[in-house]
């Protein structure tokens, strides 16, 4: 009987870890979708000839944590994702896809939580 109890607790830990990995993977896909959508919008604006009046740099896009949360809800039905976790995944995907050259993000800034702004480490 004692062995069965240990097995169940280990199994619960494994299931919990698997769910956490699955959630992070889903957020990663949602972040990729948000980044791709913003890049396509920027490319369309550049194609249409939208440039600053002074002839400076081409327009930049902005991908936000809310975009990631929106796509996570739309594609995967995720409704209770912490903003901090979505911001962490967005930061990872943003850096991996070398987005600094054409996109901005709010994933590095303060994250609103219950009315108070807190700085994220990074």
Q: Can you tell me about this structure?
A:
The chain is mostly helical. It has one domain (2-112). Helices cover 59% and strands 10% of the residues. The strands form 2 sheets. A two-stranded parallel sheet has the order 1-2. β3 (111-113) and β4 (116-118) form a beta hairpin. α1 (2-47) packs across α2 (65-76). The chain starts with a helix and ends with a strand. The model is unreliable at 114-118 (pLDDT under 50).
> What is the number of helices?
3
Taking all residues together, what is the mean pLDDT?
Answer: 83
E-strand count: 4
| Cross-sheet strand order for the largest sheet | 1-2
Radius of gyration: 19 Å
Helix coverage percent: 55-70%
- The N- to C-terminal Cα distance equals 47 Å
**Could you list the spans in which at least 5 consecutive residues all have pLDDT below 50?**
114-118
- In oligomeric terms, what are we looking at? single chain
Chain-wise SSE layout:
Elements: H1 2-47, E1 61-63, H2 65-76, H3 83-96, E2 103-105, E3 111-113, E4 116-118
Parallel strand pairs: 1-2
Antiparallel strand pairs: 3-4
Helix pairs in contact: 1-2, 1-3, 2-3
Question: What descriptive keywords fit this protein?
Answer:
two-stranded antiparallel ribbon; about 120 residues; two-stranded parallel ribbon; mainly alpha; 3 helices
């Amino acid at each position: 009987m004692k062995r069965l109890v240990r097995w169940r607790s280990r199994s619960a830990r494994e299931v919990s870890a698997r769910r956490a990995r699955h959630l992070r993977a889903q957020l990663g896909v949602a972040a990729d979708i948000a980044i791709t959508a913003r890049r396509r919008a920027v490319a369309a604006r550049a194609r249409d000839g939208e440039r600053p009046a002074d002839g400076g740099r081409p327009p930049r896009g902005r991908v936000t944590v809310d975009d990631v949360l929106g796509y996570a809800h739309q594609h995967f039905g995720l409704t209770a994702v912490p903003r901090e976790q979505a911001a962490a995944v967005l930061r990872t995907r943003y850096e991996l896809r070398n987005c600094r050259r054409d996109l901005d993000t709010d994933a590095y800034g303060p994250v609103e939580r219950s009315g108070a702004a807190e700085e994220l480490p990074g």
